Amino acid sequence: MALVAALRRILESAAAGTGAPVPRRARNWLLLMGCVLALASGAGAAADGELTIGEAQRYPLSRSLTFLEDPSGELTLDEVLEPAVQARFGAVPQRGDGVNFGFTRSAIWLRLVLHAPPETQPDWLLELAYPPLDSIELYAPDGPGLDRQAGGDLLPFSARAVPHRNHVLRVTLRPGGSTTLYLRLRSQGAVVAAATLWRPTALWQHDQAVYGVLGSYFGLLVGLLLYNLLLYLSVRDSGYLIYAAFAAALGAGQAALSGMGAQFLWPQWTWLNSVLPAAAFSAAAILGVQFARHFLSSAARLPRTDRFLRLQVAGWTAALVAAVTLPYTATAWLVTVMAMLSVGTGVVVGVVSIRRQFAGARLFFTAWAVLLAGVLTLALHNAGVLPSNLFTANALLIGSAFEMVLLSFALADRINVARRFKEMAQARIAAEHALVGALSQAQQRLTNTLHEREAMLNSLVEGIVLTVPGRIEWVNRRFAQMLGYPAEALVGQSPQQLDADHDGWEDFRLAARAAIAATGSCRAERRLRRASGELFWVEMSGTCLRGRDADASVVWSVREIPGRQAAPGEQRHRAAGAGST
């Protein structure tokens, strides 16, 4: 429960630092991780160093082992068998199905006494279910079988006593007697003695399920990798390519940790068993951080966080170089610390993304939270804080499987969001096209109507003139014929140029404006001049197009007065409305 309380204090500190509460779902996920870690750390009773074989198919040995730590790593079996050294064997720190000594440079000696009843079958298999162990030596000085066997991931796979992803050694018991076994373990990484004694048929039956689960995991990774590669080739979004590379790097690291790589991929290249876990996980971390940057568009939306993420990419690049050049122990600690930092950062960024309602943020946060639980559990397991069992030894594998699926869902959610935006954009474009079409049709109808009206006006026997203050805007064909000008020549001219009485024009204009301002219409008789110079009288009737606005356009109806003769100097006009010419 101390882990849960610590996580709760961290959440409260984060809320105080940001000034906003941590989302409830995020808080519950983090507390759940604490509960998982707490449940994985329970303690048990001490071992007595002896085990009596019965009718069971398998016997976990952690409760029956005693151990001796050899800091120098130079003790031989003969020295270990001396009474003074035998007295130094003590009970192992018992906290689960496996004995975990964490990262240590010491050689660890384990002693086990097996009592076999007379009816016990003699042939058994001893499994050490921790593939990263470098060196394993099994001694049976008083047994009926081989007195020494070797194992470990530094041996070529073909040299193993039993072809298996874990380290499996043959044990021959003495029915009706006792057999004392000594195991010497040494490794650059964590020293874990997850030892189980199996009847051969029981181990093979157990392997069917285990290999099936591992096959499903790697099949899932390959499927996600290929699926995202196809998506990348289809949409050319680099996020899918980064995700596919991330899955490949993570799969390579898990293949090394699970022993599947040594068995099926690089059985003779033993150096990969030491180099590849740290190198592959460093590469996966680089790609994971880059994926987070791309997925959240952090450079644009979270610039400060993006700078910190770029620093992590640089740190992981250095870790990748160190994994190839430095001893495994130093690199393992570096990768462990940086993994907790990076995955923790992913969780925090996920919380921020949820608060800002980024697309796919909830799935992104959940994926990194699950991976954080796996990384923390494996880190505490490797440090010897948590016991070694099926859950703690495979925490990263379990967490990464869930993370990969959740990140795939997050990418799919992004696709759905992009599709919705595309559909909205297409609907908006369609609406705009429909509006443009409607406007075009309306404009066409208006143009047709104008042409029809113009044709009607041109067919009238009277002249029609549209004027604005100071100039002619439009004339019909009859008015142009009346004056003997082309219609185009009249447009834009001043009406005064057509009037025969230039001196009296100003008086007429003022009288017409007054009439329009008073009643909105105007009537007058004026004498005009044809293009040939001939003078003739017309009756003009004007109507303002905008009420009584004397500055607006006026439509004039012009009718020639035939046979009218004017006295010398005569120019008559009368107004009965409004207008301007």
UniProtKB/TrEMBL annotation:
Pfam families from the UniProt entry: 7TMR-DISM_7TM, 7TMR-DISMED2, PAS_9
Transmembrane annotation, as ranges: 209-233, 240-266, 278-296, 308-326, 332-352, 364-384, 390-412
Family annotation (SUPFAM superfamilies): PYP-like sensor domain (PAS domain)
Positions of the PAS domain: 464-494
UniProt keyword annotation of Transmembrane present: yes
InterPro entries given in the database record: 7TMR_DISM_rcpt_extracell_dom1, 7TMR_DISM_rcpt_extracell_dom2, Biofilm_reg_signaling, PAS, PAS-like_dom_sf
Keywords, sorted A to Z: Membrane, Transmembrane, Transmembrane helix
Protein name as annotated: PAS domain S-box protein
Organism: Ramlibacter lithotrophicus
